[in-house]
UniProtKB/TrEMBL annotation:
This is Deaminase. Pathway: Cofactor biosynthesis; riboflavin biosynthesis. The keyword Amino-acid biosynthesis does not apply. The keyword Cytoplasm does not apply. Pfam families: RibD_C (PF01872). One of its GO terms (biological process) is riboflavin biosynthetic process. Keywords: NADP, Oxidoreductase. One of its GO terms (molecular function) is 5-amino-6-(5-phosphoribosylamino)uracil reductase activity.
Length: 263
């Protein structure tokens, strides 16, 4: 798929693993970060999964050279989680100053820095225990409704953030700001269904690279690859063009699609 140089946002590649019925978890409110859910989920995947995942990562890196990974806060904390307790960071300036982008030079020029681990967290729910790992540094996407105490905490911890949107993060604006402020040209979303569904509805998905495991999970409320609001009456589903299909003898599939534009 061509991605015009005139596009004012990064390319978005959704790279996730799902069952044959499109489920990305065992049930609602059972995130895979929980030990039991994670153990069962990983046991379902056939032996070829690790090698195929590695090949997918290499293919995406070679083809698109992504500079950012994208996740939702729900992948890191429980859906019921609120703002962390005990955020006592002090900020000496005006509260309004907190709602400007925070991109410290110490992060952007950190030896080894090359990419961003980007998390959408308009509610300010994550207390960070790790600010960077390898070439990745944390970048938080927030909104003007994000509590100022949380923004002061991020500044005190030296964690970068971009402000985009009012009540919640405006994903299109956030992506544009990532391109304008950080020269990001490709983002890989490994997020859950809510964030990927929001990206899809906003017309922000360009490529879908899907691993399909030989299992069926079911459940009307079980998280899927693309969750979110249903199509409006008369609206057309997103059309895809199959780019490649790979089948392993143990039942694992890898399917890569480009999103068709202008249809």
């Amino acid at each position: 798929m061509e991605h015009s140089s005139e596009t004012d946002r990064p390319r978005v590649v959704v790279a996730v693993n799902a069952s044959v019925d499109g489920r990305i978890a065992l049930r609602r409110n059972a995130p895979l970060m929980q030990e039991e859910s994670g153990r069962i989920w990983h046991a379902l995947w056939p032996a070829s999964t690790r090698d195929v995942e590695a090949a997918r990562t290499e293919d995406i890196a070679r083809t698109y050279a992504p500079q950012a990974m994208l996740e939702g806060s729900g992948s890191l904390v429980a859906e019921s989680a609120g703002s962390p307790d005990g955020l006592d960071a002090r900020f000496e300036g005006a509260t309004e100053d907190l709602y400007s982008d925070f991109l410290p030079v110490s992060v952007r020029e950190r030896p080894g820095h090359g990419k961003w681990f980007t998390v959408v967290d308009s509610r300010g729910r994550i207390r960070w225990t790790m600010k960077h790992q390898g070439e990745y540094d944390v970048l938080v996407l927030v909104a003007r409704a994000t509590p100022p105490s949380y923004l002061a905490y991020l500044r005190a911890e030296g964690i970068s953030y971009l402000v985009a949107g009012e009540e919640r993060v405006d994903l299109a604006e956030a992506l544009r700001r990532m391109r304008d402020r950080l020269a990001v040209t490709c983002v890989v979303s490994t997020a859950g269904g809510s964030l990927n569904g929001a990206l899809l509805r906003a017309g922000l998905v360009d490529v879908i690279d899907l691993l399909v495991g030989p299992m069926a999970i079911g459940g009307a409320d079980t998280p899927s690859v693309f969750d979110g609001p249903p199509l409006e009456a008369g609206a057309m589903p997103t059309r895809l063009r199959l780019v490649s299909a790979h089948v392993e003898t143990d039942g694992l599939l890898r399917l890569r699609y480009d999103v068709e534009r202008g249809l």
